[in-house]
Task: structure prediction
Amino acid sequence: MSEATPGTAVSVRNVTKRFPGVVANDDVSIDFLPGEIHVLLGENGAGKSTLIGMLAGMQQPDSGEILVKGRPVRIGSPRGSLDLGIGTVFQHVLLVPTLSVIENLMLGGSRWRLLDRAPVLKRFQELSDLLGVRLDPDALVGRLALGEQQQVEIMRALWRGENVLILDEPTSMLTPQGVQDLGKVMKRLRDKGVAIIFITHKLAEAYEFGDRISVLRLGRVAGQLDKARLKSMTEAQITDEVLRLMFGGQKADSRDAETLLGRGGHLKRQARADRSKPPILAVKGVSTLADRGECPLVEVSFELWPGEVLGVAGVDGNGQKHLAEMLAGQRPAASGSIQFEGRDVTHEGVAQRRRHGFRYITDERLGEGTVGAFSVATNLVVKEIGVPPLWQRGVSRWDLIHGHAREQIKRHDIRTPSERTPIGRLSGGNIQKALLARELNGSSRLAIFNKPTYGLDLHNIRLARDRIAQCAEQGLAVILISNELDELLELSDRIAVMFRGRLSGVVPNEGNAERRIGLLMTGAEAA
Amino acid sequence: AGATDVKSIAVLTPEQGTDYGWNQQAIDAGKAVAAKYGIEFVPAEGLGYGDVRPQLRELAGDGVSLMIAHASGYNQAAPEIANETKVPVAIVDRPDANVPGLIADYTLSGHEGAYLAGVLAAKMTRTGALGIVTSGEPPSWNSQSAAFAQGAKAIKPNIKLIYAVIGPAAYSDAAGGRRVTESVIAAGADIIFGQGDGASFGMMEATETTKATDGGDVYFIDVIGDKTPIDKGHLLSSVVWNLVPVFSAMVEDLKAGTFGTKHYSIQVADDSCQLLHTKHIPDDVWSQVMAVRNGIVKGDIKLTPVFNAADVRKLMTSVEIGNAQ
Amino acid sequence: MSAAPEAARSQGLPPTLMAGRGRAVAAAIARFLLPILLALVVGAVILLLLGTDPLAYYTYVIRRGLFSWLGIQATVTRMAPLLMIAAGLIVAFRAGIWNLGADGQFLLAAVITAALGPALIGSLPDWLTIVICFVVAGLVGAVWSLVPAFLKVRYGINEIISTLMMSFLGISFANVLIKLVFFDPGTTVPQTHTLPVEDRLPRLFGSTIHSGILIALAAVLIVHFVMTRTSFGLKLCVVGANPRAAIHAGLNVGFLTYATFAISAGLVGLGGAVDILGVWGSVRADWNPSFGLLVVPLVFLARFHGLATIAFVMFFAVLQVGGESAAVRLGVPTFYTLVLVALLLIFLALVEYLDYRRQVRTRS
Amino acid sequence: MHSLFTEPFLTALLFGAITAGVPLLFVGLGEQISEKAGVLNIGIEGMMLFGAYAGFVAAFYTGSFALGFVVGGLGGMAVAGLMALLCVRLGMNQIVIGIGLTLGAEGLTALLHHFQFARSYPRLEKAPVLEIPGISEIPVLGPALFHHNLIVYLIVAATFAIGWLYKHSDIGLNLEAAGSKPGALDAAGVSVVATRVGAVLATGFLAGMGGAYLANVGAGLFVPFMTNGAGFIGIVLAMLARGKPYWVLLGALIFGISLAMTTALQVAGLNIPTDVVQMLPFAMVILVLVIFGRHSVLPAALGLPYVRGER
Ligand SMILES: Nc1ncnc2c1ncn2[C@@H]1O[C@H](COP(=O)(O)OP(=O)(O)OP(=O)(O)O)[C@@H](O)[C@H]1O
Ligand SMILES: Nc1ncnc2c1ncn2[C@@H]1O[C@H](COP(=O)(O)OP(=O)(O)OP(=O)(O)O)[C@@H](O)[C@H]1O
Ligand SMILES: [Mg+2]
Ligand SMILES: [Mg+2]
Result:
């Protein structure tokens, strides 16, 4: 059974892994070859992270086996994985924020020994050169930007992952430039003979960097495109093939393909805003106070009309979070004013603004968007606690609440075993659907989307984008914060760019918008 | 209240009756008195300081003739249950609570014995300083502390008296007892008059393991019980309470229908309060102390107990300030 | 910081009460009974080692604590303050706040009650005195929780430690109050004035059980209802489970946190009032029943559920009352009850873990 | 008044402060290790008490103080083992299990004491003292600071050693990571469970030794409930020390001195109710928290069980 292709770095053979209610991996067999970038594709919940979790020693397969260089192994712990030369960058950052970069790299190195900085520092320099990054080894990791943290993670994965390097959705928080840099690193490592497993939701990245593509669907291997086939096909053919594998017999439409390629920009929606009327929202000179390690807002002003989508671009950490929170009422404005429909709402809180029709879809689905331990039903009403008819004189009517949830689940196609399942157990895409269902109900007037498609698969991205477009159609004013440029280009009427807490410019979404945005994002141009 | 047939007596103590002190004296006395009158004895030991009403009700329900509630912490509950069940109780530390036929107080003070202990200590100290260490400041200990001080002063007016309380609820704080006693010894005392439950053992330990400032041995004077069986050669004496006469008198009074009309007390006159004679006390000193005892019995020496903590402390400081060498 | 209580919620296993009602309830009961059985068995071994016949001991305890009229009265009376404290703890724990300061809150409220009751009883009608005592006791408890609440809201300081500190502080402070302010000069031992027996809470049907038990039972049931069936309760739960989500949802986290502390500590304070007005009538210096830390495991064993809490508190009261009686008759000190509670916790943990493993295995 | 504050008296006071402070140093250091690793160890009071009992039994029957400390440490470790099993391995709630273990240790030791020693009240000899030549001659300070059992010097040395290890060994990194982001530690190939179990066992050992010191050196005997909240003071010290062992040392010393001061004030005849003095340490903690509240940082994962790969 365990005959693997000669020269494989690592293989999985007939691996099955179940979780309560799901078969996450179903009889999966794949070979990963040295000197090859092997891309794993698949929709949310297809089982990609589970598969690499088993290679990383985080999970044990229920059945099947794992082979390293043709030899069957049991990877009982992350340590076991590292000892086999498998390094992993997980989907979520796994670094100790209270330790420095170098300390994070020393973690798990020597056992029962005193720390010796010198050799570690030397290796750090080597890897820095290899990766082409500049990091202060003594900086606290908690103070680094997300992109820098990811560089540390990759460095750590390489530290002992000399045979296999696994990267689970590493590009979801990188800038386009960052993605290019990462691609160069991957290629360099591949050329040194490392087997690279690369998970992404963006097909364009798969084409650009991948030597081989495997597609997972519902926990099974739906198919594989090897080097030779990839070479022989045109991009369109590959796209067709991948779509067929990902979604089975279902016919994917062309817009799916565009999204998948990250080239949805030209799908631009029809602008409908009528700017002759007074704006629905007017923000004048708003600043906020910075908490530790955050970028506050500085004198932000803009106006927004019903039916309009204002995109907000910018490198992560330039005040977008504060902007969203300030608008939602979660964060007080230190100065300046906010007018909504001519009314001053500067000092109103979340609940009051919600009553005016403000809606905020946060980028932290689990961090603040939901209470992970509570049921889907509770989370669907968590912003309306106490409001009739689900509550009558303060008494919960759980029957109605659950009924309401079942209806929402059906309407918005939220995939959950039941309305009583703790929402934290759902996949990211389904949590996002729940959030959209909760926010975009009834009498909303202004919707703030913060990275609404972060971590979602193609299908869910499509759904979310359509929802946003639909909002504008229905006359809502929309603020769309995103670092996916194509998303902004597809959906926005105008695009504001944030740089160091300021709105460095607002660009109409036309013609050479892309170039101007790029300049504004780096602070090169001030508009 | 009429005469009653006494069939059994119960003694309720907060700790186990094995402490060579307060609890054990009561349990032992109860046993002895029961034997003396040929009645049943029900020991109820180790009841703690919580609510003893259930235990009292249960004992009353079992038909006990007299419940001796041997803890000041019980002097609220016991009269209440006596009123509820009409079973007579004896209580401590509430002299005003007597109810004929039902409730009798036996607030005891070994102050006479403590006075003698003060005399003994003053005669035997080499350093001219005595320590008084208590784990708290309940009235009976206050009166004994004060009498000890008075006795010592009577012999040597200039004697140095060092007074220390371990802590608020330090009855079982053995480490605290030891630490405080060591400080008091370091301050010059070579004889410690110690009052405390578990803490007493810490005080004893200190006298056993610490040298006085003159390099000689330190001696310990205990209260209530007789710790000779566990002595390691530093137990100078003890103000021993003998509760047999008191409990006997209660039984007699119950039989005679006079229960609850008197106050019981212990005194050196009938040896219900006596100073323990150990081998560490030279004969001449002992006879001098006994002479003082006779003076008390005859009424030549008049003693009034001091129950108030502040007054006790006043006694100490007034002795100490100015006169210390 | 609220992380700890959140964990308490999730690591106790998924709430099995949710699906398949009948079988789940049976399983839940088995999950309670098995640990009790195991604890009793290991407890029996300890008794044997100490030279006591365990069967005789257990039968005696149950007979005295449960199946005798005197015993059941004592048991129910003992339950009253424990239940009030439990009610306070349920609010806090469900809302993700670890109020470990119950001892201080309880004692201070008790002292104030004992100071107030006898002082007012002459000049005011009985019922009014009692009402005023209750209100003030609740307030005293609540006030004593203000500092930990402030520290939590303002600086996010772990309330576990701050409430413990306030508890120790409160216990000493209660003694200072008795000794320096509220002492009864007529007594030799420092204690407050005494509320006469006839002015205490009325007793039920000629028994020695005081009506405080009704208040306590009502408190637990109301708390359970509020925490599981009302919007206010749900808001508290959300704040406890994920404060950031609460902010995001527009809840006033600061206010709700203060409210949780105040309600929890206030109920504990009422527990002090119930015990003083129902049983004691006065407080003596250095008295501290340490109910607070005892009730924590009970409430937890009951998974914060009101009815289960009543059952566990009753179980504990039977053990205590019967055990005190057995201490006198059979010579097994009351400390044994503490050992039994610890064993119960340990076995509950083990049984739950094994059950969880079994569930995971059967489901996949 | 002055006459009282003689050299021997001051010496005894300071000596007493050290004796009272040493058990706190043990538990404070122990608690700090647990907390660093993300385990809020409320059971430390029970570990200390059980260590006191076990240590006393060993020292009493063998006559060896050294053995007393070791067995005391092992006794504390036994309770810690339960905590490690239930809270770290099985992920049960740390607070509730901690309280339960403390109650259990209180009950069990009182029970054992009752059947074993309640008639004999055995007491130990004075613990052997190691005088540091030279410096132990300094007036007051010499005899107060350098006339102690070897274990006192060892634990003070250990304080610095621990501080050094925190900084310069992988143990320090692992503890920090286990308390701050256990997932990261796991991903780096170090078992979180093992790290935390080790930390909890170390805590139990230290707390047990602290208990043994309290019983064998402090009191010279065992009485039920004798730790009387010292474990909880250890939790306070750990909280105030914010991960720095030296601050635990300082805090333990201050607590010891404040206890000794109670005696000093009384011996000096000052009439302050002891309860007021008793309140001071706790009032101080609260005050420190209110004033410096924003600076008291605890490990992010404190109190949270870690289960690999759980969602
Ligand atoms: N620890 C777990 N407990 C329960 N269910 C899990 C767990 N891990 C994964 N699952 C489930 O297994 C399935 C596969 O999840 P997995 O994370 O592998 O998907 P994925 O392909 O990585 O998706 P995504 O693109 O969203 O990252 C999902 O249904 C998920 O809910
Ligand atoms: N069906 C539900 N969905 C979401 N949240 C709920 C639900 N039921 C209760 N809650 C909330 O979750 C918390 C935990 O509820 P839990 O089920 O433990 O309560 P319970 O006492 O068992 O109620 P019940 O007996 O009705 O199941 C409660 O505080 C409540 O506010
Ligand atoms: Mg994934
Ligand atoms: Mg994802």
